[in-house]
Amino acid sequence: MVKAVSRQSRKALLFVFGASLLACGAPELEEGSAPEYASMEQSLTSSLSLPSRNPITGDTYFTNTVSAGTPPFTYYWQSTEQRAWDGSTIISGWYTGSSTEYFYCPRTGNRGEEYFWSLRVEAYAVDATGAVSAITYRGLPCSLPM
To answer: Span 84-108, mean pLDDT?
Structure first.
């Protein structure tokens, strides 16, 4: 059984999550932006590769490619899972990682009775001078047989 999550429910959940991050001192983020670490204009750009995915094991890799900027780069990642079977949303929160990160997203070949969720992967980068790229993202459907 697939249960849809309303846009209002998602907005409320993201608002509560965002408010809790702000209470903890995290920088405020708007969709499509990254926190400001420096006052310089954004000349740094990030782009996520198409994912490399093994649908059987669920091994899924994304690479954040940075153009322009001054190395070394610090890479930031966040994932969001929206689970259709119970309507829950799980947000990892921003964390630092390497330019390539691993996520779990299998895809069953059998449609019908399956656990289905969507995975949204977001990333941005900061260069050695403090220049920050905009957030880039990709989404994927994931599923497991029931």
So the answer is: 94
